């Protein structure tokens, strides 16, 4: 689309959004229709969560957004978890230690069992790893430099072996949720049993609504809650109204406007934490060589069209920080590699030098990918219009087919609005997941938006296999600078983690992953 208006030097939020809406009037958008609203007030022992994205399953092979992590880990558990301070803490394992450069010895806790009373076994871990490996487009598998193999020792002990050292394997294995081998498959699991403090009483993956009840066979301390209701409420205004009325107990991923509305209410509290997730306008790296976006100079040029400071200040109202690197700065090993600079004249100059005329970009994203996503995209479209770049906005319904589009199977696109978490607290695993793509992985569309750059992948491999912490950080820094020079993003930002809860809810220990342990949550009278 084309926009002939010029933006002023500074806009208040309402003026900025009005400007964006006018600029986006010609964009072809596919908005989300329908809303599943909450009904009824929760009981005294029931926690009610309102999620902004549909929870398609209680299994994380593909479904890995922030709110999902909290719910999934209430039912299924891993050998370890990433605890406060982003350190590995044993869960199903009582011992998880590196016994050789490429070997870790794991011993399961005595008495760990599933909700049906059956024991957790090394074979379940082996099957879990194989099931994750068999899923096309798995987010989790992309975090691993390589998946370990399982070598049983006895009924409770086994070894995890890798070809190369993986110094953070204890953190990585926190993302592999364990299910009985006979019930596990290389696909998302919508039901089944787990070893967590809750079990599934009702599940509807179509609506995203679930009911969890206390697992009476839980091997650990019984949780204070009797049950948890999970409701998919995509419209933020509906979630805010339900919080005000007491129909919902907890909502997350809210905009600054909603946080401001809730902040003054006596029955509502806001919890904040620095985030380790990076949100991006990521380019499609599957373009043919003759396409403008295949040229790093064009990708760099387009970044100058985006006034990131204005977006952070006027649309996201100070709730985010413009990125100064390729991963969130809170991650261990993250370094600053540069910054996004607003210079539309420079953008046009570089585009002209590259011979780029009459460029149209298709921008896609899923509703709820980050707070104020639609306002951000409309504003971005308006900014691109200022440099003569037309845009088409395509917004996907949560739980829809955006995965097929991201893999290049559903349709063509140019820029993706997306978020990538730091589930281990380590920069290396985020780099591996986003930028460690190989031709073999791309053959099955298991790369991050087609990003396959050989020298970058080799730099990441060398860094993640380094066992000396100082040398590892230096190698990670080198890899991040190489990535920055490829200009993978038009713009990126790091959001704060904000959660709203009713005052009757206590024991929420919010992590930078925007998740928390439901088993520690209590409800006051």
Automatic annotation (TrEMBL):
Q: Would I find ATP-binding among this entry's keywords?
A: no
As given in the record, the signal peptide range reads 1-36
Q: Where is the Solute-binding protein family domain?
A: 89-439
**Is this entry keyworded Repeat?**
no
| SUPFAM superfamilies referenced in this protein's UniProt entry, alphabetically | Periplasmic binding protein-like II (SSF53850)
Q: Which InterPro entries match?
A: Peptide/Ni-bd (IPR030678), SBP_5 (IPR039424), SBP_5_dom (IPR000914), TAT_signal (IPR006311)
Which Pfam families does the record associate with it? SBP_bac_5
Looking up Gene3D superfamilies in the UniProt record yields:
Dipeptide-binding Protein, Domain 1, Dipeptide-binding Protein, Domain 3, Periplasmic binding protein-like II
Keywords recorded for this protein, A-Z:
Signal
The domain of life is: Bacteria
Which PROSITE patterns does this entry report, sorted A to Z? TAT (PS51318)
Q: What is this protein called?
A: Glutathione ABC transporter substrate-binding protein
- Which species? Pseudonocardia kongjuensis
């Amino acid at each position: 689309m084309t926009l002939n208006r010029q933006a002023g030097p500074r806009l208040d939020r309402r003026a900025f959004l009005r400007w964006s809406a006018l600029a986006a009037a010609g964009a072809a958008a596919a908005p989300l229709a329908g809303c599943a609203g909450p009904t009824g007030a929760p009981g005294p022992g029931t926690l009610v969560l309102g999620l902004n994205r549909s929870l398609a399953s209680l299994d994380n092979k593909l479904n890995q957004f922030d709110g999902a992590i909290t719910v999934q880990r209430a039912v299924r558990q891993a050998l370890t978890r990433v605890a406060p301070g982003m350190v590995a803490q044993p869960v199903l394992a009582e011992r998880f230690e590196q016994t050789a450069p490429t070997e870790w010895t794991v011993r399961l806790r005595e008495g760990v069992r599933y909700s049906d009373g059956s024991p957790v076994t090394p074979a379940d871990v082996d099957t879990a790893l194989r099931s994750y490996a068999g899923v096309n487009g798995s987010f989790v598998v992309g975090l691993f430099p390589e998946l370990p193999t399982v070598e049983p020792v006895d009924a409770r002990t086994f070894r995890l072996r890798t070809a190369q050292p993986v110094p953070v394997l204890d953190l990585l294995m926190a993302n592999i949720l364990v299910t009985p081998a006979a019930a596990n498959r290389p696909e998302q699991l919508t039901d089944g049993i787990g070893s967590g403090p809750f079990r599934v009483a009702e599940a509807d993956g179509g609506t995203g609504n679930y009911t969890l009840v206390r697992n009476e066979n839980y091997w650990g301390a019984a949780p204070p809650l009797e049950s948890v209701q999970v409701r998919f409420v995509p419209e933020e205004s509906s979630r805010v109204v339900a919080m005000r009325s007491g129909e919902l107990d907890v909502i997350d991923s809210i905009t600054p406007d909603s946080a401001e509305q809730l902040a003054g209410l006596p029955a509502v509290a806001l919890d904040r934490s620095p985030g380790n997730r990076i949100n991006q306008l990521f380019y499609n790296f599957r373009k043919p060589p003759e396409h403008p976006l295949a040229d790093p100079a064009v990708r760099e040029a387009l970044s100058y069209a985006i006034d990131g400071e204005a977006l952070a200040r006027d649309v996201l109202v100070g709730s985010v920080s413009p990125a100064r690197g390729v991963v969130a700065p809170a991650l261990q090993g993250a370094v600053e590699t540069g910054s996004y600079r607003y210079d539309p004249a420079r953008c046009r100059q570089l585009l002209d030098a590259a011979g780029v005329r009459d460029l149209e970009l298709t921008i896609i994203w899923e509703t709820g990918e980050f707070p104020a996503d639609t306002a951000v995209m409309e504003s971005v479209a308006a900014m691109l219009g200022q440099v003569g770049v037309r845009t088409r906005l395509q917004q996907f319904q949560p739980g829809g087919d955006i995965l097929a589009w991201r893999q290049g199977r559903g349709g063509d696109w140019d820029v993706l609005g997306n978020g990538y978490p730091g589930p281990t607290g380590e920069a290396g695993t985020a780099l591996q997941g986003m930028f460690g793509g190989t031709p073999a992985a791309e053959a099955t569309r298991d790369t991050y938006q087609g990003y396959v750059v050989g020298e970058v992948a080799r730099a990441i491999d060398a860094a993640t296999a380094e066992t000396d912490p100082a040398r590892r950080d230096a190698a990670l820094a080198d890899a991040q600078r190489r990535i920055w020079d490829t200009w993978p993003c038009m713009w990126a930002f790091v959001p704060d983690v904000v959660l709203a809860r009713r005052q009757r809810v206590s024991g929420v220990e919010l992590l930078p992953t925007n998740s928390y342990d439901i088993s520690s949550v209590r409800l006051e009278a």
